[in-house]
Amino acid sequence: MLRKTLILTLLIALLTACAPQATPTNAPASTEIPTLAPSEETAAVSIRAASTQSANVLTFTDGLGREVKLNEPAQRVVSLAPSNTEILFAIGADSQVVGRDEFSDYPEEAKSIASVGGSFGEYSSEAILALEPDLVLAAEINPPELVKQLEDLGLTVYYLKNPLTLEEMYGNLEIVAQLTGHQDETSALVESLKARVATVDEKVATITDKPVVFYEIDASDASKPYTYGPGTFGDLLITRAGGVNFSVAAGITDPYPQVSLEQVVATNPAMIVLGDSMWGTTPESVQARAGWDVLDAVKNNQIFPFDDNLVSRPGPRLVDGLEQLAKLLHPDLFK
Amino acid sequence: MHRSPFLSSSLLLLLALLLSLAIGSVFLSPAELWDTIMGRGTEISSSILWKIRLPRTILIALTGAALGGSGATYQGLFRNPLADPFLIGVASGAGLGAVIAMSVQWPYSFWGLLAIPMAAFIAALLTVFIVYSLARVGQTIPTTNLILAGVAFSSFATSLTSFLMIRSTSEVRRALGWLLGGASQSGWTAILAIIPYLVIGLGILVFSGHTLNLLQFGDDQAQQLGLNVTRAKRILLIASSLSTAAAVAFSGIIGFIGLVVPHLMRLWFGPDYRRLLPLSILGGAGALLISDVIARIVLAPQEIPVGIVTSLAGAPFFLWVLRRSKNQGYW
Asked: Which CATH class is domain B5-324?
């Protein structure tokens, strides 16, 4: 009995001594993405080396209240949402992404990463498992059942909650940075984002005349278009860019209301921003719509196509969205 | 094939089970599969086979069995070739329950994750109860009343569901995925949760062949032949609704299996319910398994909701069999 206990204790001691040194052998080279620039690569390696030397287990609490543990910054990440993919690329973790969902299309390099499904909300657990990830980055677009399913398969999942403000978005960037070991680059990124937002804020503070903007999400039924209401980033960014969101002017409280054309006519926005231009809507098609010609925005041809991804994907490109909206709303102030 | 219906159906089911275990979005060669079954496989292939494919296969097979069995029962009960398990509103009721549950942020815990299937299950049974109460005339349950009440309540529930989906646009994608059908919660929890209801429900149905045969003569004749018609209908309704509700709770709305599989079995093996019911159960399981395999591989690694595949593939297949069949007027 004593001999068995001794042998068992020795074995356990041996195993615990081995654990922190286990660095993944399936290095970034197995993915199909272009390799990092040499300077970034050395930076990434040194960060990784620093973490393994400390042998501390990184503990996080994710958006679902779950405890997530990593022995070291993740080297094989599967992203389950386009916003997460954009964040990973923006903070310099692109070589650590081994899988992405079907809709991740920005930046261009993301498209060459293996897809794990995602249309209809159905992901292929087999594909995810086969990629041998050490971290799966989920977003609010993924249901908790999916998180549980992947957790049951033994995978480490981090559920990144949607930010409600730009500050929360910076917070998300920093969380992903800690998960993947890119804290330094991300601090620099957040500083530059804050600076860009501050520039916009300064100039907007000088504006006295704020135009009413109608942001069109969808107008398949031209007499009942969808727009952004309070509580969405579309609304937040329009306001911050020096405009008045149509929904606020019309006193609407729903985040994604379907409004009647009559209300749009009554409020008479100065500008129409086409968030559905990626689905083929053009300023010309808006001018041809019945009943829309009475609007000031149509008469003055103040109809602008816009990339909706810049306001709907909760990542660093929200700042791009802010700048582009500012340029549209106040072209004389923002070049 | 006509001589041994149970043998051929069982073989088909076995084939479907093996296909479902062997095929998926990650390709495992027969050698790898054999190694994994024998316990010599890699960690990845073992996880894929035992933790993903096996529970999913079992859940899909059970769901298909429930749909096939209750479909045959409903067709016999209502004496209507267009009857399917969702005739009296089980699907729309379950959908409404699920969508209502989806608008709440449940805590991430064991019970929190079971909230939506439980809501769907309870709503499904509640719907049947309401429809049954609406249709009852004194001591009898006229089948016409049942159908009418069911259709009316279905429309009501469906429009409420659509309204809720429009209101909470953030949940639309999730609700749509559920309504189109698919084993979203594949895992042993789901299987353990529905097994008791399926055992009771399908267990009763398998032995109800004789009762259903009698009911084909009409309520009055069946009563005169010695059957307690009201009680028989009630038991059949309860058993099939339990099975359908359990099937729908975790797998969403999968149409067409409950309608087409009993017809196919009737075409091939005749209208005797003593054989038709068990065969529909076996056939339903096999058909849904094959549909799920197709749903997994057609656009890999995308997985189409299996409800789409059953309708797309089932309709032409059924029409083809119908045209080829020499037994016109079998119904």
From this structure: mainly alpha
Check if the beta carbon of residue A171 is closer than 8 Å to that of residue A206. Answer: no
Facing residue for B25 by CB, picked from A102, A124, A153: A124
Identify from B184, B192, B254, B299 which residue to disrupt to test chain A contact, counting A C-beta atoms within 10 A and taking the largest count. B184
- The domains of chain A, with CATH numbers, are 40-186 (3.40.50.1980), 208-329 (3.40.50.1980)
Per DSSP bridges, beta strands A77-79 and A135-139 are: parallel
Tell me what ipTM this predicted complex has: 0.79
Q: Note the pTM of the prediction, 2 decimals.
A: 0.80
Instruction: Sketch the domain layout of chain B as residue ranges.
Output: 5-324
**Of B41, B15, B14, B12, nearest to B28 (Cα)?**
B41
Cα dihedral angle (B233, B234, B240, B246), rounded to 10 degrees? 170
**B260: which 2 tokens?**
């087409």
| Cα A296 to Cα B189: distance, rounded to the nearest angstrom | 59
Record: contact B303-A117, CB cut-off 8 A: yes
Write out pLDDT tens, residues B264-314: 899 889 899 999 999 999 999 999 999 999 888 888 777 788 888 898 888
Chain A residues within an 8 Å CB radius of B162: none
d(CA A77, CA B188): 27
The Cα of A145 is separated from the nearest Cα of chain B by a number of Å equal to: 6
Q: Which amino acid is at B28?
A: L
Is the CB of A64 less than 8 angstroms away from the CB of B48?
no
**H helices of chain B, where?**
5-22, 30-37, 43-46, 54-78, 90-102, 110-135, 143-167, 172-180, 188-206, 209-215, 219-224, 229-251, 257-269, 273-297, 306-324
Assign B77 to helix, strand or coil.
helix
Query: Dihedrals φ, ψ of B241, to 5°?
Result: -65, -40
In whole angstroms, give the CA distance from residue A171 to residue A155.
24
The two tokens of residue B117 are: 């299937």
- List the one residue out of A318, A319, A316, A308 whose CA is nearest residue A86: A316
